[in-house]
Every structure is written in structure tokens, then in C-alpha cells.
């Protein structure tokens, strides 16, 4: 019975904190609502279906490199050497003329022609939990509603419903969930990129496994469904079916990094983050819509310079090789790569040689997905304390993600109680990114 236990574990991890009823509500929500009862003309419904099908054929995807804790802009992509607040960090030239970045990012400097930097991100949330939520969803947290991760929202629009693997995968730890979109779009968490996810390897032949699922359905029908639990049984079966399809899928080989050459694995960096970036490439190559690769440790209240140098030593090769690898495989145009955290750090260095929370000015790096590389958008003031030029808000950034993925940011999804919520509330795409 080990295989059945495996399916239970996969189903539970995919269900997350969403109730089982939410699982079925999220399947086919948009199409069902539009076509039900002939509310819309068939021709209009067909147009929407064709539009969605066309987007799925384009295999658009996004890889988010999440720097958990809030990376300092002055030690990453907006250094200010020789100034009072610049600290000891030196700047280095990049492949893009006129653009310099912090010295610990030598490999990223070499791919800067494919990377765009936004140095004028600005926000108000300086609390980790609140800012983390907002930079993943585009919304500030509330007590009454759980908004979906932007990746979950994108997957609900352009993900193929017949695809065997999860639409959104989080590597290196859990991320923000699918919220009111339901368990069908809940992120699948991979704790360690260097081994196959737990409970996903069948221990018995496929035929025997399928017979066990059939027996489970029979037992549920005889013992629970007929006793008044039809709704719960239906939701439970749908969840099991989705998880079983994943476990039995030949696409599961995407999680096996042993298929990659030693040279490729070494180029990404033999670290959890570097191998996570390699896994992200394999997953989007197989058809996954959104992958988040998480790197902890950026809350540098003490010894900021030393800690960021160590962190950059792991992130720099992963980021740079990911961009290069995607480009060489002809995938960069259809894959948006985003490097960011929840906020930046204070220009003024504190008494512990660290930097504190600072949402007023921070930076984001983007590549692929139609983004024009080799440019800097916006600027911070000489002392790094405020935005000097071209402020970019969180909704602006989220709207830009949607444009890259060809998702309608203004589309409204319905919550369980019939409340319409836009994918992104306000904001305009940063036009310069796609110039």
C-alpha cells in the first residue's frame, strides 16, 4: 500500500490549506461561468476558448528567483561606491555599456545584455510577512480574503488543463498559495531540487495501482457517498485523480537532474539554489507554467557585506547560467525570468554593519519574456534614500508580468462568495521593459 500512501502525500501537498470543495470550484471556472445557461453567445465563448488555446500553444512561462528576506540594492544591482552610504562594495562593468553592478555578481555582469534592471521600485510595506504577500500577489494582505500568487493566477489563465505535472512549482520551500483559486492551482513544493520529490515513485505495477484506486472509489461510494457525503467524495476523487496522473506521468522525469551532464550541473553551481535553477529550466521545458526558486538569508541586519557576498556566490552562477541556458535552447523569448525580494535595505549602515528594511527604494532584475535587456529603468537618488526618476510600483510590476505572459491583468476572477477580484488591481505595465 506504499503507492496509495504516496498519492495521499502528494494530494495533501497539492491541496495545501484550501478546502476540498475549492478544488472542484477552481476547475474550469472561467469557461463554465461564461457558457453556463447560455449567458454569453456561443461565438463569444468560442473566441475566448480559442484565445486561451492559442496562449497555451505558445508555452509561455515564468521563473521567479525569490530572494527571501529583502536583498540590499546597494550590494546587488544599484551600487554606489565612494559615497557615504555605499559602504565598501565596489562596482564592476557589465557586458551592457554604461551599466555597472556590484562586484559579487561577475557572472550576471556577462549576461547583462539580456537583463533589464529596474532601480526605482517603490512601496510602503516594510514588514516581511506583509511585503512578501504583496510582492507575490499584488495585493496587501487582508483578514477576509486570500489572494492568489501571481503565478497561480497566470497558470489559471494559460496553463494546459490536461497537463500531467503541477502548473506551479516552488523549489526550496513553500510560497504564497493559490488563495481563492483553489487547490487545482496550489503550488507543488519541492524541498530539495537534487532528489526526486517524496512519495512520487510508484512501488507497484501501474495496473495494480489503478485497481487500488478503483477499490478506493468503490469503498467511498458504498461507505460514504451513499450516506450523504457525495460532495466530499466527488472532491476527494478529483484530488486523487490529479495527483495520480502526476505520479504515473512520464513527465516526472523532469525532476531528475541526473539526466543532465556534469558540465551543465556544475555551471549552475552545485548548491541547492543553483540546482534549483536547473530544475526550473527542466520544468518549464516540460510545460510547467510558473516556477519559483527560493533563496533564504537576505535579511542582513548584521554583517551585510560579508553575508551578501556569500549569498551572491550561490545566486550569481544560477541566475546567469539560467539566462544563458534558456537563450541557447531558444526558450528565453517565451520564458520570463525575474530576480527580486520583498523590499530593499536602508542606505544608512547600522551599528551592526548591516542594513535594515527599506521599501521606499529597491531594485528588480528581469530577462526574457519579451523584455529588452541591456537597460536600466529608473534611478535612485545619489544617497539611495529615494526614487530620483521613474518610480515603479508593485501593481506596475505585476501588470508587467502579465503583459510578458499575455495575461489580461484586469480580468476578474470570482471568489467562492461571488466577489470579483482582478488579477492585478491598478498599475500599468512598464512600457520601457518591452520597448
UniProtKB/TrEMBL annotation:
A Pfam family per the record: DUF1501
Signal peptide limits: none
Name of the protein: DUF1501 domain-containing protein
Organism encoding this protein: Paludisphaera borealis
Xref: PROSITE patterns: TAT
Domain of life of the source: Bacteria
Gene3D superfamilies: Alkaline Phosphatase, subunit A
SUPFAM superfamilies (UniProt xref): Alkaline phosphatase-like (SSF53649)
